[in-house]
Amino acid sequence: MAQAFPYTYYACDCFDSNVVTAAKRASQLLAVAEEDERTFDPQGLRSNYALYPLEHLLYCEDCQQIRCPRCVMEETLNWYCPNCLFEVPSSVVKSDGNRCTRNCFNCPVCISPLIVNVLDNPEAPPGAGDRHILACPYCHWSTLETGIEFEKHTGVYAQIARIANGGKPIPTQKERDKERERRKDHEAKSRETRVLSPPADEPIAATSGSLDPPTRDDLFSNLSAFYKSQLEAQAPSNSLFAAGDVNFSSPSAYTRIMNLYSTTTAKKQKRSKPTPMREAASELEGLSIHDPASDIASIERIKRDGWTATLSPTQKREQINPHVQFEDELRPVPTLLCTRRTKRCRSCRQIVAKPESKITSTRYKIKILALSHIPRISIRALPITSTGLPSTSTQSSPVNYNALRSGVATHFLLTLSNPLFDPIRVTLATSSRTPGRVQSRVTILCPQFDVGKNTDVWDDALSSTVAPERRGSLLNADGQIEAGKVWDKGRNWTTVAIEVVPGFLRSTTGFGAADEEFDEDDDLLEISIFVRLEFEADVTADERGLGDSRGSKGEKERREEAFWTVVGAGRIASM
């Protein structure tokens, strides 16, 4: 893991599909056999998706468990444009799409916001109105390169939607329908003429061949009209489809579909099978036929203009039409809308994070952080003297976390801070050897200890408690740390010592044995620590229930929480 040493990660329970319930987890994991089977492997393939810093985790108060980004389900609270900060209703998003329909556009070349500029035209008559364009202040791209100009500086989205590249107007839906009917009548007459007098069809064929190739909007309009006509043709024989009803998301369509699959109506009457609809057979019905001449023209243009005239894959993906190829086919990209989302626990559907609905606000109405309910664990190496013994003086040489010596015992100080307002009893457990190809020996010198509650800072100064034990008394006659004792203790934190003997990176079995080939992170020293908390918390009215007579003020209940952590102690130096 590419992070400065030392570090601490917390493991979420969702990494294991066979995780037990919260009520039974603590008691089952205390068993030795169960603990050996469930030892967390920080170098496993799934560990990268289960380990998170404490600041990135949420907490569910009902389930009393850590919640990672995979443990929560998101709900869209509102939609807004990140450029103009305009909140878009959900109904508008469903009808118009997830793009801003005001004046917000991004540059198709460098994706920076475009601004509206007035086009200077000294040759224009005095009474003529101003012409406007969209320009990029960074790469200096403008819609003038594609021939798009508009009249007003407001309502830019609606104006650009009516203008094609080159300045040609885009026909409306009514105009497309009229043109389709005209071409259908023209083809019908041409077929009649072809039957009566075959040689007379040459001018008609030349006229039809001179038409421009249809655009994607034209093909979509033709295909929609074709399917609508197919549904209208089936309406008398099939009651499932009403005449003129193409919108399958309408309430009437939902009602017919539910009636089709309901058991009561299916037994009363027999429905005939719907007549299969035929596919589109011509261009006027929405059939898109590949033209090899277009490919030849594209190749010739690339030979003439070079690769600089083509578009990158990123620019193609940003366009509404992903099949564009050249720069003159670019269009301004409407700004993509953003969302504010509410996060819920997947198990109990409890809200764990909910931002304020106001777009300009960065505050949260509800945000239950794990660092307010889970103790923070930090680790640091204990400096050693020239004799190899641990020392508490500041004159000792610091420890190089990136070059831990193999076979030499190194002591680390593990500090646990309590954010709760109740004292907790902590039990630490770890495997005697770290998993992986390079196995290091780990010993927690004080696996059980108490941590005080999180109170006011002045309470510690004003309290008349006994002074804490000096660190020098924790060392025995040989200068080693005495096991079973706390290294240091404060108001809401406690520090214990851990002894680590790093493993060997080279094989030492036999004379002249060949060195093993290790992977990239085999020299990484990571310690899996299972943390179990016991504390007494106040019973709230929601936890008691309405019909529970319990609930005298000050009543407490015993709670247990358990989770895995991974501590990154450093890297083992090669010998």
TrEMBL record:
Q: Which organism is it from?
A: Plenodomus tracheiphilus IPT5
Where is the protein localized?
Cytoplasm, Cytoskeleton, Microtubule organizing center, Centrosome; Cytoplasm, Cytoskeleton, Stress fiber; Cytoplasm, Myofibril
What sections of the sequence does the record tag as coiled-coil? none
Basic and acidic residues bias (residue ranges): 173-194
Renumbered residue ranges of the record's region Disordered: 167-215
One of the record's GO cellular component terms: dynactin complex
What protein does this entry describe?
Dynactin subunit 4
Sorted keywords for this record are: Acetylation, Coiled coil, Cytoplasm, Cytoskeleton, Isopeptide bond, Phosphoprotein, Ubl conjugation
Q: Which domain of life is it from?
A: Eukaryota
Regarding protein family, the annotation reads: Belongs to the dynactin subunit 4 family.
The principal localisation class reads cytoplasm
Outline the subunit composition.
Answer: Subunit of dynactin, a multiprotein complex part of a tripartite complex with dynein and a adapter, such as BICDL1, BICD2 or HOOK3. The dynactin complex is built around ACTR1A/ACTB filament and consists of an actin-related filament composed of a shoulder domain, a pointed end and a barbed end. Its length is defined by its flexible shoulder domain. The soulder is composed of 2 DCTN1 subunits, 4 DCTN2 and 2 DCTN3. The 4 DCNT2 (via N-terminus) bind the ACTR1A filament and act as molecular rulers to determine the length. The pointed end is important for binding dynein-dynactin cargo adapters.
Question: Which InterPro entries does this entry report, sorted A to Z?
Answer: DCTN4
The leader peptide range reads none
